[in-house]
Every structure is written in C-alpha cells, then in structure tokens.
Amino acid sequence: MKKKFLAILLSAACALSVMAGCGSDAGTSGSSENKTASETKKETASTQKTEASKDVSTVVILYPGEETDSMANFINNQLNPRLADEVGIKVELIYKGWDQYWEQKDIMLAANQVIDLYWDGLPDLSSMVNKSQCQPIGDLIKENCPDMLRVIPESQLAGGLVNGVQYGIPSAYAPSSCMFQLVCVRKDILDGVGMSDIKTADDLKTFAQKAADQYPELNGPADIIFKPLTRNFADEQYTWCAYADSVVYGENTRKAYSYFETEAFQKVAKFNASMYADGLYKDELTTNYNERDSRMQQGTYLWVEGSLGKENEIIAAVRSNAPEAELKSFLLNPTADKYITACGGEVLCVPYSAANPAGAMKFLNWLYKSQENYLFCLYGPEGENYTVENGRIALKDPGFEGYFYEWMFRNANYTMFTSDVSEDFIKTYEAWDDNAKTSDVIAFHFDNSNVLEIETAINEVIQKEFTPIECGYVDFDTNYPAAVQKLKDAGIDDYVAEVQRQLDEFFAANGYQH
C-alpha cells in the first residue's frame, strides 16, 4: 500500500507539473524568446533530468534482516545513482527480520505483492515452484545476463533447474562441500579452556563444560547444530532431499530414509538431551531456534552451525560485543567423506508477482559484471570504507559489516578476503573441495505435487513432536515412540516411497555421480 500511495503521489506531481507547463506556455511572458539564456539552460537541464528519470525502473528486492541507516544511505545515495546511470534501474529493498522472513515471504507472495527478486535456500526450490512462488527465468537470463553467465557456469546454474526448467539462480558459486556440517566456535574461549581442536560431539560437550566452569558469565552454546551432529553420528553421509528436513539420501546405500527414524537422529536427540540435563543448553535454543545466528553475534555464546568462511562473515558483529573474540569453524568427523551438494547453497528467484523481472536480471548482471561492481555492492566505493592492498580488503573500521550479504552472491571469480583473514584459512578455503565427492543428488529436486497433503501433515508432526525431541528439550524415551507413530499416521512411509520413486527415475535418466 505504501508503494502504491507513493506511486499515486508521484503521478499526481507529474500531472501538476504538466499542467503548470501548459499554463506557462499560454502566458505572454512564457515564450522562450522572453527567457534569459540562464533560464533556458536550467529548464533544459530540468527537462533532461525528468526524461532520464522516466527511463529508470524500480527493482523491488525482498531482503532478510533489519534496515540500517548506513545501508539506506548506501542504497539511496551511492548504489542507485550508479545503477540509474549505468543500467537504468534502481533498487528498493523490503526488509523482513530473520525471525519472520520465511513466513512473511510466503504471505507476501501468496498475496501477489510486487516483488521482483528474493532469496531463499536452494533445498526448498522445488517446494517454491509447486507453491507458484517463482517463475521460469531461463529466457530472462539469456536476454539480460551475459556478464553473469561468464562467472556462474552452466554446471552451477543446473542446480536451479526443476524438471528441466530454470526457476532459480544458485548464487553461491564457491567451495561448498560439507555445507551446514561445520560448527563455528569461539576460538579464544576454546584456547582459554586449554583445548585446540573440535572433532567429535564429545569434544563439543567437553568444551561447553569447561567453558561453563571457567567463564560462568557466558551463555553456553547458541545452537543445537543438528546437521553437524548428524555428520558426527551417521554411518554414511546423509544429504537432505525433501521438505522440512524430513527425508535424507544415503550416499553409500543410495536409498531415501525418513530422517527422524534414523539411528543418527536418535543419537543427535539423545546428545542434545544430555546437554540440557547437564545445564549446558538454555531453553531459548529450542523456543527461539531461528535466532541462533543473532545469539552468536551477541558475543556471549560458544558456537553456532558453521559453513566454510562463516567465521569471517560474522566476526565483525561478534567483536562489536566481544572485542577479543576469535572464531574458527571445525568439521565434525573430519575423516569421513565430504560431499558437494545442491542442498548447501543459496538461490535467487523471481516471483510471478514481479513487475520488473527483466530489471531484476539486469541488477544481477551488473553486480556480476566486474569485481569492482561486486565489491561495491558488498563494501561501497573503494576508498570510503576500505582500500585494496596486496589483493586484500583493508577495512578502515574493523567493525564495518558491509552492505549486501557476501554469502548471498558469493562468487569464486571475485572473492577477495579482508586483511585479517589468515593465510592458513585462505589455503584451506581454496583447497576445500579438492578431495570432495559430488553428491548423487546434486541436481535432484523433489516434486511434492503428488503428496502435498501428506507433506503438510508430516510437517505438522515434525514441528509439534520432533523439533523438541531433536533439540533435546523433552525426554527422548518418553516421547519418541509416540512421535514416530504420529509420523507414520501422517503418511511418512508413502512420502519416502514417493521420494525414492523420483530418485530412481532421476538416476535412470542421469546416472550416479560416484
């Protein structure tokens, strides 16, 4: 409504401007012959400016997080003038806080609110397609994104295909094996309790116990990290391949399983229950699960689910509250196979409600056109917040968190680390995928259209019954058997069978990756 109201005001202003111009032409003193050269020059410049502004279209972006004054200033006074001049567009961001982003996204798209571009997790792409939340964009990419196609290869774009149709742009083109399977910890606290490494769930518990004894002012872990713990406890690599983390694919057995019925899940739940029993977890980890990242950034928590480089992404925010903080990500069960999966990434989509889908593509193409544009979107103009020194970003204010999220557009062709990132990390990052395997299901997207009712029923059971069990918030032995029966009653066996059927068809057409 606000946007429509502004549009009405602008239209009215234009109409008044035209009327005023007509009145001037009718008057004896309004002819060009009676105007000074200065007046004529001013009017010409004004007309040119008005005509130029008519060519600038708006791209509405739904964006997770809270608006800041610095971001608003960057968008309005630095980014948009460049976009208007170079591409003929400007961007308008609609902010939704992390605690409500996905719910609000669904509501806004269901109401056909004008949104030209939005972000989500790549694993949910098929569900978004079935909800009619994203439109085919293959032709839009071909017509508007020649520069983007030079730095995002076809193999990466294939992750955004559903039934052969391009519905999304998998935007995080970078080393990605074991995505969401690492744990990002306070390395300074780890050192402080006399530990140097985290390899197992037992190491994590020992760390939490020692930190509770030596740093009682801290709040303990910020996250139940169920995916890193699953890697720790599973006998094979599990890759999530259906809605609400309900079904996993076993990379060795090549079968689909109900995740909540696996032995690995049971061990995760029991571990987390022991953390609660020993007073190492706080209730907010369950009751406010989605706030885990914001908790970690408060500077009083020990760990959160990590990814390669997450420590660099959030360190400035953590240090704004704990200046002495150091972060490091560890891979649990480090000797197990690493897999590159489509489930570990971001996706950019254009909804059917988009008023300017071509403009959305033009924005992405401009962003990926050069490293200069890429860094501009992340940090602003060079020389203002940062300089480039010896191939590194030197921030003038170490607490500066940047503008657009780097992980949302990450691209290996343009990645440039800040000067505080260690050489050891850069070497690890660049070689991270060297020995990784490609998941069998990297390009698989489950089509849930045949089992929508079952999926809804399953998700309700997961939210009500399994989430507190997974978190260790309730007694496992008392609650687990009844929860499994409810899952069965909701149709989990039929759901897994449908996933397996589609997997079999997918493998028959595409083969296995390893």
Overview of this protein structure:
It is a single chain. The protein has 22 helices and 17 strands. It is α+β, with helices and mostly antiparallel strands. The protein has a domain of 190 residues: Periplasmic binding protein-like II (D-Maltodextrin-Binding Protein, domain 2, 3-Layer(aba) Sandwich), CATH 3.40.190. It is globular. The N terminus is likely disordered.
Summarize this, please?
The chain has helices at about 1-25, 35-55, 70-85, 100-110, 125-130, 140-145, 145-150, 155, 185-190, 200-215, 225-235, 265-275, 285, 290-295, 310-320, 355-365, 370-380, 405-410, 425-430, 450-470, 475-490, 490-510, and strands at about 55-65, 90-95, 115-120, 160, 165, 170, 180-185, 240, 245-250, 255-260, 305, 325-330, 340, 345-350, 385-390, 390-395, 435-440.
Which key terms come to mind for this protein?
514 residues; alpha+beta; 5-stranded mixed beta sheet; 3-stranded antiparallel beta sheet; 13% strand; globular; disordered N terminus
- In round numbers, the mean pLDDT is 89
Strand order of the largest sheet: 2-1-3-14-6
CATH C-level class of the domain at 52-172 and 345-413 is: Alpha Beta
Oligomer: single chain
Tell the overall outline. globular
Q: What is the CA-CA span between the terminal residues? A: 52 Å
Tell me the number of helical segments per DSSP (H or I, 4 or more residues long).
22
Fourth-tier CATH superfamily name of the domain at 52-172 and 345-413: Periplasmic binding protein-like II
User: What Rg, in angstroms, do the CA atoms define?
Assistant: 26 Å
